[in-house]
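Consider today's protein:

***
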Amino acid sequence: MRLTPEPPDPEKPKPPSGSAATQCFDVLIVDDEPGVREVLGDALRSDRLKLHEAGSIAEARQVVEGSKIDLVLVDVKLPDGSGLDLAGELRQDKPGLRSIVITGGPDLDGAVQAIRAGACDFLAKPLDINRLRVVVDDALEQRGRETRRRRQVKRLKRLCRRLNQSRSEVTQQVDVLCNDLVAAYQELADQIKHVETSTRFRTMIDQELDLEQLLRTILEYVLHQAGPTNAAIFLPGQGGGHTMGGYVNYSFERSSAEVLLQYLADSAAPRIAQEQEPRHLTDDAEINLWLMDESSWLSGMHVVTIPCRHEDEALAGLLLFRDASEPFDPEAIERINCVASVFAAHLVKVIDIHHRHTEFFEDEENDEGTGAF
């Protein structure tokens, strides 16, 4: 591995402000070369990180068992096995722990193997220190969000237990306590239901790294939840427009469906991209007002729009529509909306893997060695 320590930079920017920037994390660097561990440690060292080192898989297991590790940075080739095996083992035994695999080269197969082994991301040799910091910061941001979410669920559970105890102790306030208890239980039940739905869908697409298959999977999920329906998924296109990623034609002639879908890509897709929450439109006046169009393309239909957003950016839009005699179930809409952000986040990963692979070779051809060491 070629590694050259980065010279000190007095103007080096501080970590971004926010919840993850103020949290402290434990990071384990696993590499059989002490010099590599030292360079990686120097690149990542900050007040919010506590760094640990291991030279083998066996040492890494001991550190993970003895410390509360948040992130493992592991090389593929180790004296006693493969770093991919360690990433898969950690994924099974400690689901909340994040891992980043350092692959042997910038090939797509290595990236796919790392992600399928359980790593949240990968880095190709020779390492780019700036890219290393970005990937580590992203992984720790995800870890921080998961930790805060678990704490919130625990807080709600504690609240429910306290309310249950207080109900029998303070009889004069039983009505108030019962109302609070019902609200807390409902909130907890809704959160758990959303987490379970998101987790099942995340597991379903976790190893899917092909864009067309990913789009097919989300459309199949939509049909499973909503039943037979016309459905389309729009993706941002070049030049600020939108393009059709995939569709299901349920009730239109093929020739008219193509014209309709092109119209919706031009008119409905930009509207969905501006939305923060799903919409359920159930009459012609409401639909025409939303589309800002008095045409009868969707006359007599019920329409559902769901933006798929990641970090406040619209990466895709779902549109469902069918005859008003077959109304959509609000719970089905909620379940589809529940996985929209999961789909968008995975869409980012799929595009990033393929884009990063292509970008590396383009940079290598134009300026060999620039920005890496």
Q: What stands out?
A: The CA atoms of residues 41 and 330 lie 51 Å apart. Residues 1-20, 360-364, 367-373 have pLDDT under 50 and may be disordered.
